Amino acid sequence: MLKFAKKLLLIVGALVVIAALFLMLYEWTLSGSSLRNILAAATANNSNPDKAASFSSTISAVWLPVAGTLVGGLVLGLGIGIPSATFKQRYEQRQAEAAQKLAVSDAESPAKA
C-alpha cells in the first residue's frame, strides 16, 4: 500500500508542479508584462483612481501558479519522503536475509572440513 501511495504522490506532485509552471509561463506570455509596465504599475499614484486603473496588476495572475507550485512541491516532497515499506516489513526482510545468510554459511562450513 505504501508503494502505491508513494508512486501516486510522486506522480500527482510532479504533474501539479509542471501544470503550475506552464500556467505561469502562459500568464506571463499573455499578459505582455514588460519591466516598463511593471514599474509603471508599482509607481503609479494610487490617490488618482484613473491613473491607477490604467495599469493592470500582475499580482493576481501570479498567485494561482505560485500556490499550485507550492502545493505540488509539498505533495512531491511527501512522495519522496514516504518509505516504500513499513518498518515491520523491512524488519522481517532483514531477519529473513540474516537467516538465509546463516543457513548458507552453515551449509558451507562442513564442506570445508
Summarize the structure.
The protein has 113 residues and is mainly α.
Number of domains: 2
Shape: rod-shaped
- Pick out the low-confidence regions: none
Helix content: over 70%
What's the number of helices? 5
Task: Find the count of extended strands (DSSP E, 2+ residues).
Answer: 0
The CA-CA distance between the termini, in Å, is 47 Å
The mean pLDDT is: 79
The proportion of strand residues reads: under 5%
Going by helix content, strand content and strand pairing, the class is mainly alpha
The main β sheet shows up as: none
Write a structural description.
It is a single chain. With 113 residues, the chain is mainly α. It contains five helices and no strands. It has two domains: 2-82; 87-113. The protein has helices at 2-31, 35-42, 49-53, 59-81, 87-112. The model has no long low-confidence stretch (mean pLDDT 79).
Keywords for this entry:
113 residues, mainly alpha, 2 domains, 0% strand
Write the layout of secondary structure elements.
Blueprint: H1 2-31, H2 35-42, H3 49-53, H4 59-81, H5 87-112
